[in-house]
Automatic annotation (TrEMBL), chain A:
Protein name: GntR family transcriptional regulator
Residue ranges occupied by any HTH gntR-type domain in the UniProt entry: 7-75
Domain of life from the UniProt record: Bacteria
Keyword DNA-binding tagged: yes
Organism: Lacticaseibacillus baoqingensis
CDD domains xrefs: WHTH_GntR
TrEMBL record, chain B:
Organism: Lacticaseibacillus baoqingensis
Keyword Nucleotide-binding: yes
GO molecular function: ATP binding
InterPro entries in UniProt: AAA+_ATPase (IPR003593), ABC_transporter-like_ATP-bd (IPR003439), ABC_transporter-like_CS (IPR017871), P-loop_NTPase (IPR027417)
Gene3D superfamilies: P-loop containing nucleotide triphosphate hydrolases (3.40.50.300)
Protein name: ATP-binding cassette domain-containing protein
One Pfam short name: ABC_tran
Length: 126, 235
């Protein structure tokens, strides 16, 4: 995995696991790999993995079972809220950029709809 | 809790030259620490002193419960330990000798590390490429069971693919509670592995910080390191 060298790595690992849950690589109730295995897969140190997992456990996204390991929560409300937060973060960035170009919300909506239509047409031709 | 390393008021002179001045440094157990500094800043000297390879210093150096040089030697695995070995020896002979000399040397680990790193047991040390010599140093260092590992510039002259294999060896073989100190003058080699960085400049410790705390301020570890030298890495 390629890391952004200006963002704390534990935070990037949190985001990585969030995304794996959103796209379904990790399903609710799935066990996540052992700390040492994750450290080797991502080439980061064990303490960094532990900090990321502790944060995800604090948020209720992962559930720790004593002696068994860490599991994705089966609480779908928690996972839906996490997904919404991740999507909102992406939208916020786009929104700020378009605001910076002087666009109004109505113009943004129209531009986004037009863009989606163009992408659909283009992808259909590929 | 016992600290992995505790250095107090360390001063070291050799041949009428001050090599280290008022070094104070404490490192906890179970961490990977980057010892960063320009060439000639004193990184190797500091490692030799911690490992007990250099003596006659002022101040104190404590590794776990070990204070004097002999006790420290048993707790510290230093990558410089094979520097005096006969260059005609083969890789396998190095391991056999170390297994006889050191109670904590694991031959089995050494052979596995050699396989992982692609080192041939039958090669003579002097015939190894620079990169393979680095690999041998790493394999030997990680094959000991110690509290503190000191890796002096392990990635100097190493290509990207080899570096990846070496990083994985470090993660896989370091015991859980051990602390690793890795010196480097190219931070990017080891950046993502580090819990914390210690900057050594002008023969003393200039700074110590958690890697993710540095990044939380929007700075890369490399930028942080360079801020101490103003882009000029020659001491």
């Amino acid at each position: 995995m390629e890391f952004d060298d200006k963002v704390p790595i534990y935070y990037q690992i949190e985001q990585y696991i969030d995304r794996q849950i959103i796209v379904g690589d990790l399903a609710p109730g799935d066990q996540i790999p052992a700390v040492r295995q994750l450290a080797l897969t991502l080439t980061v140190n064990v303490n960094t993995i532990q900090r990321a997992l502790a944060e995800l456990i604090r948020q209720g996204i992962l559930v720790s079972q004593r002696g068994k390991g860490n599991f994705v929560t089966t609480d779908t409300a928690v996972l839906a809220a996490m997904k919404k937060r991740v999507i909102n973060a992406e939208l916020a960035e786009t929104y700020e950029h378009l605001m910076g170009l002087g666009m109004t919300p109505a113009e943004m909506l129209a531009a986004l709809e037009a863009y989606i239509q163009e992408r659909k047409d283009r992808d259909a031709h590929d | 809790m016992t600290e992995a390393l505790m250095i107090k008021q360390l001063n070291y002179r050799r041949n009428q030259k001050q090599l280290l001045t008022d070094v104070n440094l404490t490192l906890p157990q179970g961490q990977i620490v980057g010892l960063l500094g320009a060439n000639g800043a004193g990184k190797t000297t500091l490692m030799r002193l911690i490992a007990g390879s250099a003596v006659n210093f002022r101040g104190s150096i404590q590794v776990g419960d070990a204070g004097d040089a002999v006790a420290r030697k048993a707790q510290v695995s230093f990558s410089g330990m094979i520097d005096g070995f006969n260059p005609n020896w083969r890789v396998g002979q190095v391991a056999e000798t170390l297994a006889e000399l050191l109670a904590d040397f694991r031959g089995e680990d050494f052979y596995q590390l050699c396989d992982l790193l692609g080192l041939d047991q039958k090669q003579r040390i002097k015939r190894l490429s620079k990169g393979n010599q680095r690999k041998l140093r790493l394999a030997v260092t990680l094959s000991r069971r110690a509290q503190l590992y000191l890796l002096d510039e392990p990635f100097d002259g190493i290509d990207v693919m080899t570096r990846k294999a070496m990083l994985n060896s470090i993660l896989k073989w370091a015991p859980e509670l051990a602390t690793l100190v890795i010196s480097d003058h190219h931070v990017t080699d080891i950046e993502q592995l580090l819990d914390q960085v210690v900057v050594i400049k002008a023969r003393t410790i200039a700074a110590q910080a958690q890697a993710d705390d540095i990044r939380a301020q929007g700075q890369s570890v490399e930028q942080y390191f360079e801020s101490f030298f103003g882009g000029d890495l020659d001491d």
